[in-house]
Amino acid sequence: MKVSLITGASSGIGEAFARRLAAEGHDLLLVARSETKLAALCEELSVAEGVSANYVAIDLTDYEADRRLYEETERHGLEVDWLINNAGFGSMGDLVELDLERELEMIGLNVMALVALTHRYLPGMRQRKSGTIINVSSTASYQPVPYMATYAATKAFVTSFSQAIAEENRRDGILVQALCPGPTETAFFDNAKIEPTSMFKQQQTADEVVEAAMRAVASRKTKAISGWMNRVVATASLMVPDRLITYVVGKAIGPKFRSKK
Ligand SMILES: NC(=O)c1ccc[n+]([C@@H]2O[C@H](COP(=O)([O-])OP(=O)(O)OC[C@H]3O[C@@H](n4cnc5c(N)ncnc54)[C@H](OP(=O)(O)O)[C@@H]3O)[C@@H](O)[C@H]2O)c1
To answer: What is the pLDDT of residues 169-191, one digit of tens each?
Structure first.
């Protein structure tokens, strides 16, 4: 059975993807740590949309989690036709003040789990000559971001990696997309302990982000920035020297963290 596997499907953008794909008739395999939320969403979507919706509750930063997830799909004869690598989190602060374990966990989830799942599910897509991979990056991937250094760097990796892989797999009929949302109304900011500042005031809804991604999939785009304002800012930032951007952003958010000393 063909399924769409969505990581981080228990809330926010991942949940919005689950609702949208179910409405379009996709059978789902939802992945995150919160078992109760995943079970409730599967129950709701299978009744409301008449699709098959199952879940695997797993921490993707655990040792060999990607292997265990892959084996689970193999055991149930599931062909992952859409892979949405969405699970991720951020942090904000002076790097030396942030918890090192949490920063490394972020790299484990935002980068390592995404690469591992892409690597595991691409061979099946190649054999079938079809597949869609959406790797959820961020507009933060467009420039280094002081006080969000690790997060922005993980997303720069995701955008670069996804576009390279897109070209490697284009001739096999597989679409790989780097999806770059800007600030979006989800639990992301609370989880990252980021206080709302003017930088993050203009927020899209998770549904708007998913709509942008789906439109970009329909036109086979390998990169999608959701929201016209985010597109303007991200594109403009490519024309400004990194040193100027880091100076301005550092000036804007730095005092909040540096003044603690
Ligand atoms: N919101 C924004 O402003 C924004 C902007 C640009 C990009 N993004 C990106 O969008 C993606 C989704 O974030 P969101 O905004 O929707 O935030 P969110 O509501 O906090 O969703 C994060 C999802 O990731 C899952 N997750 C976290 N740690 C996990 C782990 N160790 N193993 C498995 N699943 C894990 C969470 O579920 P559990 O807690 O149940 O595990 C949750 O389903 C992230 O990659 C984020 O970087 C967000």
So the answer is: 999 999 999 999 999 999 999 99
The beta strands (E) that lie in 76-228 are given as 79-85, 131-136, 174-180, 223-225
Is 260 a residue whose pLDDT tops 80? no
d(CA 198, CA 200): 5
Set 151, 193, 223, 251: catalytic member: 151
Q: Which residues line ligand 1 (CB under 6 A)?
A: 7-14, 32-34, 59-61, 86-90, 109, 136, 138, 181, 183-184, 186-188, 191
Structural domain for 68, as ranges = 2-258
Q: Which CATH number do you get for residue 133?
A: 3.40.50.720
* 28-32 β-sheet, strand order: 53-57, 28-32, 2-7, 79-85, 131-136, 174-180, 223-225
Distance 12 CA to ligand 1 centre (A): 7
Distance 248 CA to ligand 1 centre (A): 27
Residue pLDDT, tens place only, 44-74: 999 999 999 999 999 999 999 999 999 999 9
158 close to 106: Cβ distance less than 8 angstroms? no
Q: Tally the domains of the chain.
A: 1
**C-alpha 86 to ligand 1 mean position (Å):** 6
Which of 155, 193, 256, 261 does the annotation list as catalytic? Answer: 155
- How many Å from the N-terminal Cα to the C-terminal Cα in the chain? 57
Q: What is the pLDDT of residue 68?
A: 98
